[in-house]
Amino acid sequence: MFIISCDNKSGKKEGAKNQPKNILFIAVDDLKPILGAYGNTVVKTPNIDKLAANGFVLENNHCQQAVCGPSRASIMTGKRPDYTKIWDLKTHIRSINPDIVTMPQYFKQNGYQTAPVGKIFDFRSVDRQQDSISWTHRYANLKRKNKEYVNETTHISYEVLHIPDSATVDGMVATRSNHLLRKFSKEKKSFFLATGFHKPHLPFVVPEKYWDMYPIETITLPEFQKTPEGAPYYATQPSWELRGGYADFTKDYSVPISEAKQKKLIQGYYASVSFIDTQIGLVIDELDRLGLRENTVIVLWGDHGWHLGDHNMYCKHTNYEQSTRSPLIFSAGKDKIGKSNSPTEFVDVYPTLLELAGVKSPENLDGISLVPLLEGKVEKVKDFAVSQFPREDDKMGYTFRNKTHRYTIWMKDNFRSNQPFDASLVDAEELYDYEKDPKETKNLVKEEAYKTVKEDLKAQAIAFFKTQEVK
User: Fold this and answer.
1) How far apart are CA 315 and CA 30, in angstroms?
2) Which of 103, 124, 136, 359 has the most beta carbons within 10 angstroms of its beta carbon?
3) What is the DSSP letter of 110?
């Protein structure tokens, strides 16, 4: 999810108006768009909603690959996974592209102070300093230095804490971020502050008051908890992150997750989202208090969506809507307020931030600036967003989401989008109509009524591959 904000504040120095805009870059791990700003009436997120109310809501935004490492590599470099070659949680970005210029690195090259707090890149994709070349300030790994659980001695999926917010890792992220804001407020250089919150990523370990917001008896399960009819068997996943990483869940995929367990997971996710919303509010309030808001662009985003029981799945790792769709909100002044269902994607963040900050953009980015959309000059900036996810040993699924449909093409034999398209490598296809079937209950790719839609989207997919070919 992604938010950018730039409001007026009377305490700001006159001279700052001529400075390049500051950037407050807030990353939220595993945050799906269950926010008031997106029409959700259950989950309480007053601080994010307040920010969004003065901004522009992108209702149809998608990540490049629905897992932390690849998604964050793409948003931070402005390049798609088949360029970064980050498809997993073990490959270092600079082992493949040693000279790639990340977003904070580019701001640094343009005279900015740059500082990371919390989780920005996935730690398995970079060095221990969150890609040290990107920052002018040393990284503080608060999670490594502090316990996540308080009383639990086994790695389970949740814990109800009886400690203040400030004693949690994410509470410390907010505190550290505010310390840096106070430091920056005394200096004249523009800053890029990256603040990364760890929740609502598993385990759901947050203070009791947030659990109390969602009594377990009020929690309901999704209406549709089946695999889409006609979908390839490998398109879904058996909640392997949950089953493989947490002691309170069996590793036997054939054993269903009980209804009681599912409700506890949903309750924990909701509680974690509200907890993070409070921490975000603390940071934005400090920005306001310091008089920095007028000349600061705020960016709030989550790295991908999250399955909460739909299709009988939990966690991410798919090409379906609940996994790829990620909230994206820009609040960048009074002339950029509204919402759009135009497709957008995380590779667009890098060039958009640069334009909003008044910094010239490099020409090699895969995304495009969304500023014309935010200013109401166009109704869309692209026809579709592209996500992807690997399966088995040799398959890669590319999914194309426009305003109303999703077309997914599964390629075999280790095909990648930078290779010439070969029709003989198509292993399977999927098609979903979100106007008539928003829950993705049936793969429509073989339906006669959708023949033209499928052919058109497939042609667009092949044309996209053509643009990605390495000459």
Assistant:
1) 8
2) 103
3) T
Task: Name which of 75, 56, 58, 57 is nearest 66 in CA terms.
Answer: 75
For the whole model, what pTM was predicted? 0.95
Q: How far does Cα 32 stand from its chain's mean position? A: 8
Q: What residues are paired with 400 via a beta bridge?
A: 386, 407
- Hunting for tokens 């929740």 — which residue is that? 199
According to CATH, the topology of domain 392-468 is: Arylsulfatase, C-terminal domain (3.30.1120)
- Decide if domain 2-374 falls under CATH 3.40.720.10: yes
Which residue do the tokens 């106070």 mark?
182
Question: Look-up: residue for tokens 């994206």?
Answer: 328
What would the pLDDT profile of 334-358 be if each residue is shown by its tens digit? 899 999 999 999 999 999 999 999 9
Note whether 394 and 88 are within 8 A (CB).
Answer: no
Identify the three-state secondary structure at position 388: strand
> Residues near 276 by Cβ (< 8 Å), separated by ≥ 6?
28, 31, 170, 197, 199, 200
- The dihedral built from the CA positions of residue 32, 142, 346 and 374, taken in this order, carries a sign that is positive
Domain ranges of the chain: 2-374, 392-468
Distance of CA 121 to the CA centre of its chain: 12
- 276: nearest Cα among 391, 423, 118: 118
- Give the tokens for residue 211: 């659990």
- Tokens for 205, please give them: 């370990």
Q: Tens digits of per-residue pLDDT, 365-412?
A: 999 999 999 999 999 999 999 999 999 999 999 999 999 999 999 999
State how far the alpha carbon of 437 is from the alpha carbons of 250, 332, 406, 432, in Å: 32, 34, 11, 7
β-partners of residue 117 are: 140, 195
Structure tokens at 195: 């603040």
Strands 328-330 and 2-4: parallel
**Torsional sign, CA 117, 119, 124, 125:** negative
Q: Give the distance, in angstroms, between the CA of residue 465 and the centroid of all CA atoms in the same chain.
A: 24
CB atoms within 10 A of CB 84: 24
CA distance 240 to 194: 30
